[in-house]
Amino acid sequence: MFRNRNKGRGNGERPGPAANDANSDAGTTKEKKPFAQRKPANTAFRQQRLKAWQPILTPKTVLPTFFLVGLIFAPIGAVLYYYANKVSEFTIDYTNCQNAGADWVEIPTDKYDYQLAGKNSSNWSNPQWRFAPAPTAPNGSHCEIQFSVPEDLQPSVFLYYKLTNYYQNHRRYVKSIDTEQLLGDVRSPSDLSSGNCKPLGAEGGQGIYPCGLIANSVFNDTFSQPQLLNPGGTDSNSTYAMTDRGIVWPGEKNKYKRTKNDPSTLLPPPFWRGTFNNSQGLAYNYPNGYTAENLFDPSEDEHFMVWMRTAGLPTFRKLYYRNDNDVMLSGRYLITVNDNYPVAMFHGTKSIVFSTVTWVGGRNLFLGAAYIAVAALCVLLGLIFTARHLIRPRKLGDLSLLSWNDN
């Protein structure tokens, strides 16, 4: 029945399967593996037989939940709101101080806001300002502000500067920074010009230090220490000493080191190249460029660190001074501002803010109000649903309400 395909091998015919089997004795015969089962293991987890609990929402379970949430949230919100309201805070907008003139005039009422519990007509008077001549000031004059503190402010007392309509959260602005340069690493002009700092990375074959949009636009208004005028009826003023140390978050200083670049290879940012030579009057001012003795060191400037941590909203405040030990006594105070930072170009404003804190933080009434609002809403919904259930109760599992029973 079968033809012997080995026949005629001498005539050049191809060997058949038998010959191939004979020649494969030297090799290793491969055994077929049994068919692999792909069915998941027979376990509760793999076969989805784990125990589960599915709540059945009934009036007896839902209605008490509304009232329970209301009872929990209401006291939490009341406590948060009470202690946030205990924070003393006042804000003075000095944007238009340059238009005040050389004589003392009252600040318009829409330019300041006091949130102090002890404020009354006997211990408080309207704040005043003037743009007084000052030979050491960059513009030849500086802004002087007199303000009242109607009650003793317990430490800690903080001084912030506040900006409005300033979008530090713009994507290109946030990315315009070179972290390696701020850590002190050597960065060539080509590294900076092709990196995130572009177009403020390099200029004329020299690297800009510190590079980028954030550093170039650093806030450079300066504030004097608050002076208590005529304390106790005396003729001399008393300084309420505040410090600019400890105004950054813990660990923030680890991001900044003195650069290892040769100062002759570096240029200050464009907005730092002023013409005013008194470094006490204008912060971040390098009219003659950098030298070995006059080189910016970010690791020693906490105001710079505070600015470099960008804000998420267009209205923000940043810490400038603090005092954690001394009471700020009630009375009339004087503070001097070197008004250098322009805000008219972006239609913004700038203000000084004095504030205390409590264990819940600063003056933020929203969180407490939100808790109270949620509690009130839950109680209101609980009452409405309870009344609806008592007036027109619905039988649980009533088949007459199914769609096919409409007819």
UniProtKB/TrEMBL annotation:
Name the record gives this protein: Lem3/Cdc50
Example GO BP: phospholipid translocation
Protein's UniProt keywords contain Transmembrane helix: yes
Membrane-crossing segments per the record: 61-84, 365-385
Membrane topology: Multi-pass membrane protein
Organism, as annotated: Ceraceosorus guamensis
Major location (coarse): membrane
Domain of life: Eukaryota
UniProt entry tagged with the keyword Membrane: yes
Entry GO CC: endoplasmic reticulum; Golgi apparatus; plasma membrane
